[in-house]
Amino acid sequence: SGLLRYLAVNVERLTGAVQITLVWNSKPTDIVKVNNVARGSLPAAASLQHLTKYLIQASGNTSSFVLHSLWIHFHSSWKHDNAIFGREEGSWKLIHGPDSITEVLNFNSTDWKIAPKIHLRFPPNVFRQA
């Protein structure tokens, strides 16, 4: 019954910046932006607007919290659905920052000129576990 169902966090290891995804308990059509202000089913729209603004501003006010990107994933789940991320079209909304974090795989080699570097991109719907 709550609006914020889950919080997904990915960390870009090189920079320490965080990619945050707010999994919001509504459909994307429930909240639309008009003139850069969320309009729709209150209090959902007002709560979401306030939370996203706070997270973006908090990142600028401290060096200990660096926001890489902020996403909203609209997932109006029901009691028999335990999936964190849904598959509905149009359910992902980038609010702030780049669309994915990047990790670089460096392979050890005696000759650094031929050692391949592989760049991996992680959008917010990719789940990683160490």
Q: How would you explain this protein's 3D organization?
A:
- It is globular and about 60 Å long.
- It is 14% helix and 37% strand.
- The chain has 1 helix and 8 strands.
- It is mainly beta.
- The protein has one helix spanning 44-61, and strands spanning 4-11, 18-24, 31-34, 37-40, 67-74, 92-96, 101-106, 117-122.
What are its keywords?
mainly beta, about 130 residues, 8 strands, globular, two-stranded antiparallel ribbon
Distance between the termini: 31 Å
| Count of individual helical segments | 1
Major sheet characteristics: 4 strands, mixed
State mean pLDDT (0 to 100 scale).
Answer: 81
Query: Helix-strand pattern, N to C?
Result: EEEEHEEEE
Anisotropy-based shape: globular
Strand content: 35-45%
Helix content: 10-25%
Structural class from helices and strands?
A: mainly beta
Tell me the Rg in angstroms: 17 Å
Tell me how many strands there are.
Answer: 8
* Arrangement of strands in the largest sheet: 1-2-5-6
Uncertain regions: pLDDT < 50 for 5+ in a row?
none
Chain-wise SSE layout:
Blueprint: E1 4-11, E2 18-24, E3 31-34, E4 37-40, H1 44-61, E5 67-74, E6 92-96, E7 101-106, E8 117-122
Parallel strand pairs: 2-5
Antiparallel strand pairs: 1-2, 3-4, 5-6, 7-8
